């Protein structure tokens, strides 16, 4: 078996934060999204590959060296050119050869034990999907909705107009060799992007599909809200590196503050704040937010917002905002 982590998307729903930064490399707690996945995959001891694109290839090189995994790079540079998830799987199989594959979306964080999941797959040698109950029919409509008889999937509909259940597919799939071969047939007419349509097609074709249910937590980092909620889930303890902090500033844990940051004046940081390297926060309140490196915030209140690197924010109250890199925003004194 080979593990293939899909990280070739352009994450347009999180632009401008992900315009020049791959979503799997966004920080959650003290690790990036994809590092949370790689640590779980490493327990399997199987060859592991990250599928990405030419535009983001350089971003993943250090990570691949650190975790001793290989990159599979599709020759695309934009959302319009991308192969889509199923197209990228075919591209990887063309390079790596037919085999059983564990395929994982690179923008998910989850409590599922991959060791237990793969063990179950090896027992049945049938297509196996990881499923999770999101507990909300309206939310389920964003995903592939699943109905089971025992462990067997008897109904699957990708992004239905109305959800029959809140049990959904999570972007974690174990596909046996004989099913991997069917990707070529599917791509002649099928949706090249969302893998759920491939699972739906397999069922229509009479291929047996089984489900592995798990609980506790699962986050699909598809929006700013889901990203910030995942941050809160993983940010349990404060990590404060070598920083400058005013005696009048207050830190409300949990927070992560990276080296070289300056917390000045009567600032209040936290709870649930990620402050990247060399940021300057002066006389400002920052909570439930992520501030990327070398950003300056003065006399402002930031709540449930994500601010990219090298921004300057002055005299503002920002709530539920996404601010792209190098922006300068201020209200007159």
UniProtKB/TrEMBL annotation:
SUPFAM superfamilies named in the record: Nucleotide-diphospho-sugar transferases, Trimeric LpxA-like enzymes
Coiled coil keyword on record: no
Example of a GO MF term: transferase activity
Domain Nucleotidyl transferase positions: 2-234
Mannose-1-phosphate guanyltransferase C-terminal domain sequence ranges: 251-315
Domain of life: Archaea
Keyword Transferase attached: yes
InterPro entries: GMPPB_C, Mannose-1P_guanyltransferase, NTP_transferase_dom, Nucleotide-diphossugar_trans, Trimer_LpxA-like_sf
Keywords, alphabetical: Transferase
Annotated family: Belongs to the transferase hexapeptide repeat family.
Name of the protein in question: Bifunctional protein GlmU
Organism: Pyrococcus kukulkanii
């Amino acid at each position: 078996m080979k593990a293939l982590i899909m990280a070739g998307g352009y994450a347009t729903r999180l632009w401008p934060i992900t315009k020049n930064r791959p979503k799997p490399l966004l920080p959650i707690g003290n690790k990036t999204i994809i590092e949370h996945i790689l640590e779980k995959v490493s327990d399997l001891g199987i060859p592991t590959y990250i599928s990405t694109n030419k535009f983001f290839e350089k971003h993943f090189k250090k990570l691949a060296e650190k975790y001793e995994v290989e990159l599979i790079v599709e020759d695309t540079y934009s959302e319009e050119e991308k192969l889509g998830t199923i197209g990228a799987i075919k591209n990887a199989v063309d390079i790596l050869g037919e085999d059983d594959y564990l395929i994982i979306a690179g923008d998910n964080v989850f409590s599922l034990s991959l060791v237990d999941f793969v063990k179950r797959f090896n027992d049945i040698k049938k297509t196996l999907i990881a499923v999770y109950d999101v507990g909300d029919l309206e939310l389920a409509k964003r995903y592939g909705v699943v109905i089971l008889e025992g462990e067997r999937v008897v109904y699957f509909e990708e992004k239905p107009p109305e959800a029959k259940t809140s049990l959904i597919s999570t972007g974690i799939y174990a596909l046996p060799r004989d099913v991997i071969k069917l990707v070529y047939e599917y791509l002649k007419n099928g949706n090249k992007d969302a893998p759920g349509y491939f699972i739906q097609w397999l069922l229509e074709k009479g291929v047996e599909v089984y489900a592995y249910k798990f609980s506790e937590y699962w986050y699909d980092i598809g929006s700013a809200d889901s990203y910030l909620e995942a941050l809160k889930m993983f940010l349990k303890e404060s990590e404060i590196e070598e920083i400058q902090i005013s005696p009048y500033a207050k830190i409300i844990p949990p927070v992560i503050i990276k080296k070289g940051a300056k917390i000045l004046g009567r600032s209040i940081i936290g709870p649930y704040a990620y402050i990247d390297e060399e940021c300057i926060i002066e006389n400002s309140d920052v909570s439930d937010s992520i501030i990327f490196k070398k950003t300056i915030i003065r006399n402002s209140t930031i709540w449930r917002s994500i601010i990219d690197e090298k921004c300057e924010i002055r005299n503002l109250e920002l709530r539920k905002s996404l601010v792209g890199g190098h922006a300068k925003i201020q209200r007159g004194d």
